Every structure is written in C-alpha cells, then in structure tokens.
Predict the structure.
Amino acid sequence: MQLTNFKHKIKEMVKFHEVDILGVCNNAVYFNYFEDARLEYLKDLKKTYNLEAILQGDSFFIMAHNHCDYLIPATLDGKLEVLTKVKSIKNSSFEIEHIIINSITNDIIAKGGGVLVHINKITRKSIPLPKTFYNAVLDYENEVEIVKNP
C-alpha cells in the first residue's frame, strides 16, 4: 500500500471523551474519524468537480460495510492524519480506503475502509452513480478499479 496514492488528508486530534482510563482511544472512535474523512473527501470532490447530484436532493450515500484493523493505539492528545482514497467503483457503490497515521511518529496506527451505496432518499433503493462521479474520481485518484462502467 503506497501512501503516495492517498491524495486526500484530514487532521484529527484524540480528545478526552474519546479515550478510556488509560488514555487509549476507544476502538469505535476510529469509525468516526473515517466518517469525518469520507465526508470531507466527498465535499472536496463535489466542490472541485462541480458534482451537483452528490450529497443533495434525493441522492445520498449509506454505508453498507465498514472495517478497521487496529495496529498501534492512539492516545489522548494524539495528533492524527486520516488519509482517504476511492479504491473501486461499481454501478451504484464504491469502496473507500483509509489509513490513520500518527502525525508525530509517522507510524500507521490503523487501516480500514468500507463500501458506500448511492441510494434514492425516497425509495431507499440503490441508484446508479452519475457518470460525472466516475469522471471526477478517475481524474482525482492515481488508481481506481472500475468494476462496471456507467
């Protein structure tokens, strides 16, 4: 896994309410960091590529799958960077990857990701991703597997 393939990055800091009595970040908090990173990724993609149909109106994304591998504990006041990239795109879903790095030591402390499904808010059924989404991700990322073209 090449870190240079991750163009998108946000910063996080481990807060008091996110740790246990030993000062170790609770495992569930990593999914909050992933969510923050995903949302910023999509907002930045939407703004940069003028994607009007994403994150508004009747169209939105839901998580169908989430996973995390914990490598090194994050601790109270830890300064973190969450790297994000789209790994693959299908007809109505895409797979996203995350890496969390300790900003001080540069150690990878966690790896994870998930699958997001593009759905219609009213029908709650999956709908195809717009071609503009494919084009934006292909332009932004170094490598993306297209499982099914629009």
Observations:
- The chain has a mean pLDDT of 92.
